[in-house]
Batch of 3 targets.
Target 1
Amino acid sequence: MRKKVLLVNDDGYHSDGILTLRETLLENGFDVTTVTPDRNMSGSSHSLTFTRPLKIEKLEKYENFYYVVDGTPADCVHLGYYVVLNGKKPDILVSGINTGPNLGNDIFYSGTVGAAREGTLLGITSIALSPSSSKNPNFKEMSIIALKLIEQILEKGLPEKVFLNITFPNISLKEIKGVKITRQGRGVYKEKIKKYLSPSNEVYYWIGGEESFDEDCEDGTDYTAVKEGFVSITPISLDLTNYEAIKVLEKMGFSI
C-alpha cells in the first residue's frame, strides 16, 4: 500500500524546496497531499489564526493534490488534516524542504519547525527539513537523502511526542559523511536591524540576521554536525518542562 504523506512548508507553494521534494516523493510511489501557505510565512513559528476565517484553494495546474491556505504553516497542517484529509491520519507529515537553515535558536521562530510540532500534537509522525544555509542549496540531492530518512522513519517509527528537526549540510551528496544525532545548538547569527525611511518620512525597521559559522560551536550540536559535513537529526520533544528546575524551584519554597 502506498504511504500517505502530508507535505507542508512555510515558504509558500512556489518554493523550490517543497516542489523538488514533492516530485521526488511522487516518483518513488508515495501518495502526497501538499498544503502550503499562499505566501512566504517564514518566522511564523507555531501560530494558528484565530482572528479571521481561512481560505483554502486547490491548485489545478499541479497533478495530485496541491492546496494553498491564506494562513500560517500550522494552519496548513490543521486544514490539511481536518479538511483535505477529512481527519484521516497520514503515515507521516513532512515540513520543508525550507529555503534556509533552522538551527539552534531558529527552532523557536521557524514556521517549518512549527508545522512539524503541530503535526506531532495531532498524533502524526512528523519531521522538519532544512539546508544548513540559504546559499545555493541543492534541493535535488537533499530530497534523495530525505527520501531515505523518511523510508527509515516509516519502518522504525519515532518516540512518542517527539519530532525530528533535520538539517542537511550544503555540500554535494558524495561529500556528506553520514548522519549525527544532535542536540539543539546556540544561535550564531549576526543580528541586524535595518532602518528605512519612506517617501513620507515615516521610519520603518526590518529585523533580520546574517548566517555565520565563524564562531566555535559546541560538540554534539546541530551546528557542529553540519559544519563537519554530517546530516543533523535533532529530536524535539513537545514537553518543554525543565525537570531539574522543578527541583530547584521546590527548594526555594515559594509562598503567597
Target 2
Amino acid sequence: MFDRLFKKDPMKAPARQVYLALLEASRRPFLFGERGAPDTVDGRFDMIVLHAVLVFRRLRPLGDAGKHFNQLVFDILFDDMDAGLREMGTGDLSVGKRIKEMGEAFYGRATAYEPVLDDPDQDALALILERNLFASDGEAETITEAGPAAQRIAGYALAAERYLADQDGEAILRGEAPRFPSAA
C-alpha cells in the first residue's frame, strides 16, 4: 500500500520537459505584438493553452499512457500557474478561485478548438481566437469576423498540428521536446 503512495512516477520528469518545451514555444515573440496575440497575462495564457491542446491531441491516441502523460502535463501547467499568481502577489485566498477560473477557461478553449482542429477550418479557428484573444468582456458573441492577427495564429496552429502529427508520440512520452513551426 505504501509503495503506491511514495513511488515516483517515471513519467513526471518527461512530462515536465514537455511542459517546458510547450511553454517555450508559446512564448516565442512572433506569436505576439501587432501581428499576433496581445502580450498580456491573458494573451500568454491563451498561447500556452493553444500549445497544450495541440500536444494533448497528439498524445491522446497513445491510449492510457497518453492520457496519463497529458494529465501530468496539465497538472504541471496549473502548478506553474498557481506559482505565477503567487509571485504576482495574488493573495492566498484568491489563488484557488483564479486557478478554478483558469481551469474553466482552459477547458472552454479546448472544447471550442477540438471540432475545428478535427476538421481543419482556419476561418472557424480564427473566429474562436478572435473572440478569446481580442474581444472585450461582453463583446465576444457579437464578433462575426476574425482579424488578420487571429487568422495568422490560426494558420500557425493548424501548421503546428501537422508538425506534431509527424512526430513520434512515444518519443514525446519519453520527454523529447515537441517541435512547432518556427514562424506564424
Target 3
Amino acid sequence: MSIDANLIGGDALQAKIDGIRARTADLEPGLLRAGIVALKAAADRIDSGGPGWAPNITGTPLLHQTGRLLSSLTVGASGNVDDLSSNSIVVGTNVRYAAWLQIGTGIFGPRGAPITPTSAQALVFNVGGTRIFAKSIKGTPPRRFLFIDEAVAEKVREVFANYIFGRPDP
C-alpha cells in the first residue's frame, strides 16, 4: 500500500525558504538597515541635547552648533569609527573631535587632569566673540551620543529579523 500526499502551498513555502536562504547568504543589506536604526538614535541624541547633558554656555543645543557632527554620522562607509564587515556594523563619524565629545576631556576624560597649554603660557579661545586667556581649564564632560541601549537594540533586532524573513520594516 502507498500513500501520496500533496502539500497545498508547498511552492509558496519553498519560495519563502529560498528567500531566507538568499538573504542569510548576504547579510550586508540587513546590517545596513539595522545600522540605520543605531545611526538615527545617535542623531536623535544630538538633536535633543542628549540624555542628561549639562548645558553649554552658548545656548545652542549641545553638539549641534554647526550641524557638522550630525551630518557626519555614517553607516557602512569609511571613516575613523565606522566599519562594515560580513557579520557586524558599527555606526560612527569621521569627525576628529567626536571621540573627545564621546569620552570627555580634561578632568572629565581618561586622564582626569585639567587641560594646560603645552607650548605657551596660556590657553586662548573665543566664547561669544570674547577672547579668553586661561592657565588651565577643567575640560568637557562626556556627552555620549554613540551607544546602543536596550530600546535601540530591540529595534535593531526587529529590523534585522524583518530583513531575514523578507518582511517590510515598520
